[in-house]
């Protein structure tokens, strides 16, 4: 199983899961999906600590979404739920930055979310976290503060579809390759960001990140 020292070696496709927490689906008045809802971000979306999150030109409602990222370690195609964890190299904290105003327009027109979710700097990511450091990814606190104030505080036990299920399902849609990242969805508490805001986020006390919004 390959290991990844940091995100530049992760650096592969970003498979995102939407509406995987009931309270977050409810806060945006969205229905709860009956199977995982997937979308993709381009690899140009990645940034790491030290890089700023840039509000894309014309966006008036940039939101944070803290998420557990699962880093794939071996090629996975049509894998079962029971074997899914064998394909995990480790984890990362990821922020699914979202231009909520653009996403609302796309939703109303039935258009794809690519631009609202995939702009440059829309995937800030932590350093790689070794698999052994998170023995149970389905029971992990995740939190996010803006300017020191707690905005998101959740636990992955509240995911509608647990990690094994997401890997199995995603592997039926796309061949998962070493270095791919699955962002597993955000808990409730998403909110608007302004230029100058400082985001701090963490996976329990295992890993923490800080990003400036520009
Ligand atoms: O934009 C959304 O709310 C869908 C999503 O990414 C999530 O639930 O994490
Ligand atoms: Mg998300």
From TrEMBL:
Gene Ontology annotations for the cellular component aspect, listed alphabetically: mitochondrion
Keyword field contains Metal-binding: yes
InterPro entries: Fumarylacetoacetase-like_C (IPR011234), Fumarylacetoacetase_C_sf (IPR036663)
Protein keywords: Metal-binding
One GO BP: carboxylic acid metabolic process
Occurrences of domain Fumarylacetoacetase-like C-terminal (ranges): 13-210
Pfam families per the UniProt record, alphabetical: FAA_hydrolase (PF01557)
Catalytic activity: 3-fumarylpyruvate + H2O = fumarate + pyruvate + H(+); acetylpyruvate + H2O = acetate + pyruvate + H(+); a 3-acylpyruvate + H2O = a carboxylate + pyruvate + H(+); oxaloacetate = enol-oxaloacetate
Superkingdom, natural source: Eukaryota
Assigned EC number: 3.7.1.5, 4.1.1.112, 5.3.2.2
Family classification: Belongs to the FAH family.
Protein name: Oxaloacetate tautomerase FAHD1, mitochondrial
Organism expressing this protein natively: Elysia chlorotica (Eastern emerald elysia)
């Amino acid at each position: 199983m390959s290991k990844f020292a940091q995100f530049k070696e992760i650096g592969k496709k970003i498979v995102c899961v939407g509406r995987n927490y009931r309270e977050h689906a409810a806060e945006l008045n969205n229905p709860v999906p009956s199977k995982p809802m997937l979308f993709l971000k381009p690899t140009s979306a990645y940034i790491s600590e030290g890089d700023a999150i840039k509000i894309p030109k014309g966006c008036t409602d940039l939101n944070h979404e803290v998420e557990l990222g699962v880093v794939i370690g071996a090629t996975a195609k049509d894998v079962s739920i029971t074997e899914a964890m064998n394909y995990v190299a480790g984890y990362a904290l990821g922020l699914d930055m979202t231009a909520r105003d653009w996403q609302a327009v796309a939703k109303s027109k039935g258009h794809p979310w690519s631009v609202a979710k995939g702009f440059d700097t829309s995937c800030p990511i932590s350093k790689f976290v070794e698999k052994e450091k998170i023995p149970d990814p389905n029971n992990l606190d995740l939190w996010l503060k803006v300017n020191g104030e707690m905005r998101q505080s959740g636990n992955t036990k509240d995911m509608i579809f647990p990690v094994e299920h997401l890997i199995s399902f995603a592997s039926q849609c796309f061949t998962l390759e070493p270095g791919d990242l699955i962002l597993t969805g955000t808990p409730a508490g998403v909110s608007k960001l302004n230029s100058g805001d400082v985001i701090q986020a963490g996976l329990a006390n295992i890993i923490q990140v800080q990003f400036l919004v520009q």
